[in-house]
Amino acid sequence: MGFDDTFNTESLLPDVISFRDRFPIFHNKIHLASNAMGAVSDATEEAYRSYLDDRIHYGASWEAALSKQEELRKSFADFINAKPSEIAICYSATQGLGVLSTSINWLNRRKIIFDDYNFPSVAQLWHAQKLRGAEVVRISPDSEGIIRPEYVANALDKDVGLISVSHVCYKNGHRLDLEGLGKRVRHADALYLVDDYQGCGTRKIDVNALGIDIYVGGAVKFLLGSAGIGFLFVKEDLLETLHPTLTGWFGQKASYEMEIEAHEEAADASRFQIGTPSVPAIYESLAGLNLINSVGINNVEKWISYITSLVIHRLIEEGFVLATPLDPQSRAAQVAIKSIDGVKVVSELQKRGIITTTRDNNIRTAWHFYNTPEDVDALISALQDLRDLMLFDH
Ligand SMILES: Cc1ncc(COP(=O)(O)O)c(C=O)c1O
Description:
The chain is about 35% helix and about 15% strand. By secondary structure, it is α/β, with parallel strands linked by helices. It has 2 domains: about 10-30 and about 295-390, Aspartate Aminotransferase, domain 1 (Alpha-Beta Complex); about 45-290, Aspartate Aminotransferase, domain 2 (3-Layer(aba) Sandwich), CATH 3.40.640. The strands form 3 sheets. A 7-stranded mixed beta sheet has the order 2-8-7-6-5-3-4, with helices on both faces. Helix 2 runs antiparallel to helix 8 (about 280-295), helix 3 (about 60-80) runs parallel beside helix 8 and helix 9 (about 295-315) runs parallel beside helix 11 (about 375-385). The longest helix is centred in the C-terminal third of the chain and has 21 residues, at about 295-315. It is globular, with a radius of gyration of 21 Å. The protein starts with 8 loop residues before the first helix and ends in a 9-residue tail after the last helix. It binds pyridoxal-5'-phosphate (PLP). The site of pyridoxal-5'-phosphate has 13 residues, from helix 4 and helix 5.
C-alpha cells in the first residue's frame, strides 16, 4: 500500500498535541475508541459545570436551556451546511429516525432499501415498519465487502419509498461512496437517508451538495459531545409531506401555549422533537462541536487521513490482516484489524492502557485529531505481544 509520507505532518502536529492536552484520559491511557465514545475534554467538563451553575443560579430557567439548544441547532446546521430550521435535536439517532418513521406512509411506496453497513438499531427500525405495511430490501456488499452505489441504484423501482444507507460501517470501517450514490439517487422519488454517526466529526459534510434528504448522527462519538443527543436533518422541501404522529410539546408550533384541544406541529424540523430535551447533553455537545470547529474540520480530516494511513502501513508491515479497505476513498477514521478472539484482545489491550472496541472479532481502532504517531507505535507493539490472538495472512 502506498503510504504518503510526503504529507506535511509537522504543520499539524503542534495543533494535534495541544488538542490532545485538553483530554485528561491521555495522561495515562491511549484512547482509540472515538467510534464508540469520544474522549472527554476539559471543555466538556466545563460545559457540564456550567449547566449545573445555570441551574443553581436560575433555579428553573427554560430560557437558559433552550437558548443552548438553539445554539447547538445552529452550530450543527452550519457544520453540515443546512439551515437551523432543518434540524431536530433528538435524544439519540434511532429515536430521531423513529419519530421520522411515523411520518412516512408505506402504503403508497412500500419498499425500504437499506444496506448491510447499517447499524442494527436502524435496520431493526426498518424491519419494524413491516407492521405498518412496509417491505424491506437489503443491499449486500461484493466479495471485497464493498457496497457499490450501483447496487443501491439498481434496486430502485416505483415502489421504493426510502433508501437508507450508512456512510461508514460501524463494524469494519468501510465507507460508502456518497458522491457516487447521491448522483444516482437524487432524482428518484424515494427519500434518501444517510446515517452518518460513524463519519460525522471526521470529515467535511455538505448535505446539500450530496443531495441528501434526511441525515442523522449523534454527538457522543467523533463530535466529542455527550450521549443523549441525536441530530436529525430533514430537508426543508420535504416538511410539507412529513407529519410525525409521535409528538409532544417540544414538537409543537407553540410549546408554551399548553394546548390540549389540538395538535399543531412546528412549521420546521423541530416537529420531530418530543419532550424535554437532554439539557446537560446539549451543553456538553455544544462544547464538543466548538472544539472541533476550533481546529477546523478540514484539519481534522487531513490528520485522520494521515494517521490512519500510517497505522495501516505499519499493520501491513507486521502481517496483520485488516477488515478495513486500504483505499483511502473507501475508509474513514476506523481501522479494524482481524483477530481470532476480539473480546480477549480488547481486554488485553485495555490492561496495557489502550482503549479499543470489537465487533465480529475485528479490533476496532478509531483515530481522531488527538491521536499521535506514538499511539500507533504503542498499538503495534501491544499487538505484537498478542500475536497469538491475531489473524495473519501467511
Ligand atoms: C452508524 C450508527 N448509527 C446509529 C447508531 C445508533 O445511535 P443511537 O444509539 O444514538 O440511536 C450508532 C451507534 O453506535 C451507529 O454507530
